[in-house]
Amino acid sequence: MAWTALGSVTVGILLNFWLYGVVCHMYATYWTSRSRDFLWMRLLVPALFIIDTVQTAADGYFLYVVTVQLNHPDGYTILRVWPCQLAAVTQSLSAVIVTLALTHRLYRLTKNNRFIGFGFAFLAVAVFCVGFTAAIKMWTFDFSKGLAGFNVAEDLILAWHSLEVALNFLISGALIYVLSRSRTGFKGTDSLINSLIRGAVQTGCFSSIFSLIVIITYTQMPVETSICLIFILPLGRVYSVTLMDTVISREMLKRDISEHSNSYATHGVSGAPTNTIELRVRKEVSVYDGDRMDTPDKSPISPKKAEADAASSLSNIA
User: Fold this and answer.
1) In the list 2, 73, 205, 243, which could disulfide-bond 98, CB 3.0-4.6 Å?
2) DSSP the chain
3) What predicted TM-score, i.e. pTM, was given to this entire model?
4) Transmembrane residues, as ranges (predicted)?
5) Record: fold of 6-260
6) What is the pLDDT of residues 83-96, one digit of tens each?
């Protein structure tokens, strides 16, 4: 029995190799930057590295067996050595780690709002359970039926990826909304916030596009070709790239915040501010405070110092 999906699997594995190289470069950049992140964040990065390495090694072994070791293998033999169950497990682990890390960022941005923090964390764990259940279900895979044996987990696979898309869009949308409300009116700090908004858009789009393509190709393409495997196999590395890009961008943001916060103390501001400038600063600070209804300070406020304070307040997201 010939297996026409071998080409799709090969392309998917090669794409996975490429993304693994990209994310390894990101891991090296993070480890050499001597980050002062929380301990749990510093542990998440090596955990993702181990997950990515195990899955990539398993894919590499499978590709070696079917292309070098075996001589014209049939579909049954190929499926016997294919680590498809492991792929579902590692993808579920990578997705829940990345989603929880982004949930923590949203939790900090919303001033430690427990409803938002625990709510999104619960959704992330629930989606992980669906994906892990799909992986367990795949252990009952009947290799004699070829790829059609995947029907035992078809509903779970579709539900898993559909929930991933919905959760990614929810988290990204919430991040964009909160960041948009955090604009200060100062050019320097607003440019930093705009960078964070672009990162939130990329975070949701990158992984969601892959999951959407998986759903479309899985339901619309012939099972014999399994085009969906091109996008399923590297999906775990997509999540890793998403998190590492966010973490590295945050380190750059911290340096920018430090520069803005220190600019006032370093250079100072000479001369007394005029009434026009004073009114302008009060307006900008009130925009930054959002829902706060505190009475503004009657004393003159230096625009440079106000911008430095606003930049310093952005460190809450780190």
Assistant:
1) 243
2) ---TTHHHHHHHHHHHHHHHHHHHHHHHHHHHTT----HHHHHHHHHHHHHHHHHHHHHHHHHHIIIIISSS--HHHHHHH--HHHHHHHHHHHHHHHHHHHHHHHHHHTTS-HHHHHHHHHHHHHHHHHHHHHHHHHTT--GGGGGGGGGGGHHHHHHHHHHHHHHHHHHHHHHHHHHHHT--S-HHHHHHHHHHHHHHHHHHHHHHHHHHHHHHHHHHS-TTT-TTHHHHTTHHHHHHHHHHHHHHHHHHHHHHHHHHHHHHHHH---SPPPHHHHHHHHHHHHHHHTT--PPPPSS---HHHHHHHHHHHGGGG-
3) 0.77
4) 6-31, 43-66, 86-103, 115-136, 156-179, 200-221
5) Rhopdopsin 7-helix transmembrane proteins (1.20.1070)
6) 777 888 999 999 99
